Amino acid sequence: MSDELVEKVRAGNDHAFRMLIETYKQTIYRTVYSVLRNQKDAEDVTQEVFIKIYTSLPQYKNQGFKTWITRIAVNHAIDLKRKRERQKEELQDEHSSEVNLGLTDDVEAVFFRNERRKQVLRKLNDLPEGYRDVVYGYYIMEKTFKQIAEEQQIQVKSVEVKLYRARNWMRKHWKEEDFS
């Protein structure tokens, strides 16, 4: 039945798409809710998922419609959840850096930290290639281990190990006078 409706939708039949929505809206909602755990977000994302399904129908290969739309729903919900977590981390980072800047750092300390950052940036290309992205992300962009891990699609522990090894490499190969 679903494949027949899909073909009608592809042919431009809007009523067939409404029937698909009616048939699968509870399935999509439950799937999205299981990821987001928030009713309002799940309702909004369910609507977004149906728009995405509609625009993605040309790529559908008539192999398990329910599985296909469920995968779209899960991926979309996970993307939203990750985006919200990143935004929350960024807000926390901004807040903590503002607090730190206002309470613990004086102008001189900020100046020296910025100078150190510039010096590391100048010497960054001397680092072995496997360490550059982690050092740049952590020291220059001031990203968290978690943010770096997500960007590089590796485990947080791998970021920690790379940074540890990079620091050892820098201690061994860079002289203190390189930074004066």
TrEMBL record:
CDD domains (alphabetical): Sigma70_r4
Q: Name one Pfam family in it.
A: Sigma70_r4_2
Which keywords label this protein?
Answer: DNA-binding, Sigma factor, Transcription, Transcription regulation
Membrane as a keyword of this entry, yes or no, is no
Similarity comment: Belongs to the sigma-70 factor family. ECF subfamily.
Please report the organism this UniProt entry assigns to the protein.
Peribacillus simplex
GO:BP terms for this protein? DNA-templated transcription initiation; response to stress
Kindly give the PANTHER family that the UniProt entry links to this protein: RNA POLYMERASE ECF-TYPE SIGMA FACTO, RNA POLYMERASE SIGMA FACTOR
InterPro entries per record: RNA_pol_sigma-70-like, RNA_pol_sigma-70_dom, RNA_pol_sigma70_ECF_CS, RNA_pol_sigma70_r2, RNA_pol_sigma70_r4_t2, RNA_pol_sigma_r2, RNA_pol_sigma_r3/r4-like, WH-like_DNA-bd_sf
- Residue span, RNA polymerase sigma-70 region domain: 20-86
One molecular function GO term is: sigma factor activity
Source organism superkingdom: Bacteria
* Transferase as UniProt keyword: no
Where's the RNA polymerase sigma factor 70 region 4 type domain?
A: 118-169
Name this polypeptide is given: RNA polymerase sigma factor
